[in-house]
Amino acid sequence: MSDKQHRKAAIAEIIRNQRIHTQDELISVLKSKGYSVTQATLSRDVKELGAVKRPDSVEGTYYVLPRHGNTTNHIGIESIEISGQLCVIRSQPGYASAAAAVIDRANIQNVMGTIAGDDTVLVMLKETADKDVIRKSLLSIFQKSYL
Question: Rounded to two decimals, what is the model's pTM?
Fold first, then answer.
């Protein structure tokens, strides 16, 4: 992965996990993670990622990443990410418990279980789990092949 790809992945992770209100704030967070970036480069990266500002009634605006595809699936799933033996599924607020129940009932091979919050499901995978097979299985039960 190139330096630009690493930087853009870091930017996406920051935007997903924090409320970033300005590019200066984003530059500061990136710097704390070891990335040195100019405002012009950051501006291009943000644009390429498709990040936009969403209004916040208390704090003005903050950056969000676009949802890929149509999120009108029946359970409100927005993303599926797998790392090691953990899978994190993001949903619209209030849908995580329902999503976890669907996963539990599906009895997907090599899935040990789930834990749900309000908008996040943690799926624990066996060490032998094939991540591509798990992802395809999850996508098929949520009928959303474009996450």
Answer: 0.50
Task: Report the CATH number that the domain containing residue 41 is assigned in CATH.
Answer: 1.10.10.10
pLDDT (tens digit per residue) in 9-27: 999 999 989 999 999 999 9
Say yes or no: 54 and 90 in one domain: no
Instruction: Encode pLDDT of 33-81 as tens digits.
Output: 999 999 999 998 988 887 777 777 777 888 887 655 433 355 668 889 9
Q: Which residues pair with 80 in a beta bridge?
A: 89
The answer to whether position 71 is within a domain reads no
Interstrand relation of 111-116 and 77-83 (parallel, antiparallel or unpaired): unpaired
Q: Please report whether residue 132 resides in a domain.
A: yes
Domain residues for the domain of 27 are 3-64
